[in-house]
TrEMBL record:
Residues 121-315 form the ATP-grasp domain. The lineage of its organism: Bacteria, Pseudomonadati, Bacteroidota, Cytophagia, Cytophagales. It comes from the Bacteria. It holds the Pfam family ATP-grasp_4. InterPro entries: ATP-dep_AA_Ligase, ATP-grasp, ATP_grasp_subdomain_1. Coiled coil: none annotated. Keywords: ATP-binding, Ligase, Nucleotide-binding. It comes from Belliella alkalica. This is ATP-grasp domain-containing protein. Gene3D superfamilies: 3.40.50.20, ATP-grasp fold, A domain, ATP-grasp fold, B domain.
Length: 405
């Protein structure tokens, strides 16, 4: 085991991952952060960071050549052990840097399975994982074949957009083509997929050496797609341990991770249990910790801090020691969250003893509850959703909002 300090570069387009970077530094490592200029004023954990570098633009706007040259310059005086992508939008940047600078970790081919929804579906289908019927939008004949043979409704999905942003639901062939024509040359960046009605689940996991060493299964009580398209209350709670749903999603998650070649780190994967046939279908995955404060929800239920444990996994790989997952708690937790008409909503009236976390974001109102009883969590989420709807909810101006998911 090599206990000497290692140097890590973290890349993030969004304000997240503070626990990850702090933990890496506490383990004796040097941590650099590359983020967007727009996030300069965010409370990053400066005391745990060697330096922060700022790029102009956000999301997909960064100049990758400038990024590469900047990191190459940093490497002249630092041996970089690892480059970590903290958000969906950063996966391409990190894989691009690793490939060019020959730094170990996920490369561009595997990275596509965790970013490109078309690559995900093609890979999952080839590996025998159940996925809803889908088609790329490259070839007109293939699109017509899909529309003539797969029952509507369908959804047009951006291939590389995070969360439920940009999804269009269509109910017939004429409308499908209308939307495709409106996309113009941009159509190549979308796919069409059969809409499967049912409950959506998410598996929040940690992987090491190609195996899922921890996986917490939860169910969205209102999905990110519903929230992004109609406003409302976002809710999720982990499912009863050992239940049929828990076992089925755990199995499906293991299959996906194996098919996609996931080696080490955190993953957030979504599945749908189809209302018509009861089967579990793969929807999408990402090589990151889930957003919308799902990490805090998982920690409330299990005691496992996904960001912190991911940092320890990266540290163990860099230094060559065996990582051991802490003992997991088997309790229940749920989150309820909405966009708020108040910049800093007063949530003091939500004072049940089960409340363990209040969402700190401006123009958001939400909290996490924890209990040893699954039924109690669900009861509180239902009650709080009603109260938030009547007293706090809004569809606020987009510029005031950050992503729910």
């Amino acid at each position: 085991m090599n206990t000497a300090s290692k140097t890590f570069i973290c890349v993030s387009n969004f304000f997240k991952g503070g626990d990850f970077m702090s933990q890496l530094n506490k383990l004796g490592n040097k941590v650099y952060l590359i983020t967007s200029e727009k996030l300069k004023d965010k409370p990053w954990p400066h005391e745990h960071l060697e330096e922060i570098f700022y790029m102009s633009g956000q999301d997909l706007d960064w100049n990758l050549e400038h990024l590469l040259l900047g990191v190459a310059d940093l490497m002249k005086s630092n041996k970089i052990e690892s480059i970590i992508a903290l958000d969906d939008y950063d996966v391409e940047k990190a894989t691009f840097l690793r490939e060019n600078l020959r730094i170990p970790g996920m490369g561009q081919t595997t990275g596509r399975y965790f970013r490109d929804k078309l690559a995900m579906r093609m890979r999952a289908k080839a590996a025998g994982v159940l996925v809803p019927e889908f088609s790329a939008l490259f070839n007109d004949e293939e699109i017509n074949h899909f529309a003539d043979n797969v029952a509507a409704p369908w959804v047009l999905k951006p291939r590389s957009e995070a969360s439920a942003n940009g999804i269009i639901k269509v109910h017939d062939k004429e409308n499908l083509w209308k939307h495709i024509h409106e996309l113009g040359e941009n159509r190549i960046r979308y796919l069409v997929e059969q809409f499967k009605p049912g409950d959506v689940y998410h598996a929040d996991g940690l992987n090491l050496g190609g195996k899922a060493i921890s996986c917490t299964v939860s169910k969205y009580l209102a999905t990110p797609m519903e929230i992004s398209q109609g406003g409302g209350i976002f809710r999720s709670a982990n499912v009863p341990y050992g239940s049929d749903d828990d076992k089925a999603i755990q199995k499906a998650n293991t299959e996906v991770m194996k098919a996609f070649g996931m080696k080490d780190g955190a993953t957030h994967t979504e599945f749908i249990k189809n209302r018509e046939d009861g089967e579990i279908y793969f929807l999408e995955t990402s090589s990151r910790v889930g957003g919308a404060h799902l990490a805090e929800m998982v920690e409330a239920a299990t005691g496992i801090n996904l960001w912190g444990e991911w940092a320890k996994i990266e540290d163990s790989i860099a230094k060559g020691y065996t990582y051991k997952l802490p003992k997991k708690r088997k309790e229940y937790a749920g989150i309820v969250l909405t966009l708020s008409k108040f910049e800093k909503p007063d949530l003091s009236s939500f004072d049940d003893e089960e409340v363990c976390f209040r969402v700190p974001l401006d123009y958001h109102a939400g909290m996490i509850v924890r209990s040893k009883k699954h039924a109690r969590v669900r009861e509180l989420l239902d009650e709080y959703a009603e109260r938030l709807t009547s007293d706090f909810s809004t569809t606020a101006d987009p510029e005031k909002l950050t992503k729910l998911h």
